[in-house]
Amino acid sequence: MDHVNYVFAHTEYDFDTSRIGFEIFRFEGDLTVEHWDNIQPREGPNPSGRSMVDGPTEATDLDQTENNREIVRSFVKDVFINGQLDKLERYIDQTCYCEHNPRFGDSLSPLRSALSDPASNEGITIKYDRMHRILAEGDFVLTVSEGSVNGVHSSFFDLFQVAHGKLVAHWDTTEAVPPRSEWKNHNGKF
């Protein structure tokens, strides 16, 4: 098999409406052979004054790529999929954590509440069922997961920044997965 590479980008679209997205491209040799995206309307700033796209953009700590990938893999599995909210402090550096989700600020209590109590999250129920892909470069790690928002089949693209073994920043987009009858291809979202 030829060498396979993935490239991911965090993007802002400003056409008729402002939207934020993540793009993933898979290359074989010099050819782009697959593409995935996850796009949502731009919202915010969040309670901490952060936008969905501000913050660092250059990957550092390239020698830590695989360690950071494993930290994020464990976090998504333990906290997002298995709901082990008692492990939040184990994974997140509370002294410098920067949240970019438009509904939450930097402290862990809004995140904990949103994942455990829909009433505290504007009545929104978030459920992660499965992680499909995890891409990493240095201190940045992107996960692609599947689940539901208020019972609607959804995709979650979560970008984390890792420093010294802990999560220090998070950006995300959530998009409803259309029913199979509305697909424009047979490949699916994931």
List keywords for this structure.
single chain, about 190 residues, alpha+beta, Nuclear Transport Factor 2, Chain: A, 5-stranded mixed sheet, 3-stranded antiparallel sheet, 3 helices
What is the mean pLDDT? 92
State the helix count. Answer: 3
Relative helix content: 10-25%
Oligomer designation = single chain
What is the CATH first-level class name of the domain at 43-51 and 61-178? Alpha Beta
Radius of gyration: 16 Å
CATH architecture label of the domain at 43-51 and 61-178: Roll
Structural class: alpha+beta
Beta content comes to 35-45%
Number of strands: 8
Question: What is the H/E string?
Answer: EEEHHEHEEEE
Main sheet makeup: 5 strands, mixed
The general outline is globular
Q: In terms of per-residue confidence, which ranges show pLDDT below 50 for 5 or more consecutive residues?
A: none
Quick overview of this protein structure:
This protein is an alpha+beta fold and 190 residues long. The protein is 16% helix and 42% strand.
Walk me through the structure.
This protein is of the alpha+beta class. It has a domain at 43-51 and 61-178: Nuclear Transport Factor 2, Chain: A (Roll). The protein contains three helices and eight strands; from the N terminus they run βββααβαββββ. It has a five-stranded mixed beta sheet, covered by helices on one side. The chain has a three-stranded antiparallel beta sheet with strand order 1-2-3, with no helix packed on it. A hairpin with a 2-residue loop joins β2 and β3 (31-41). It is globular and about 45 Å long. The two termini are 21 Å apart.
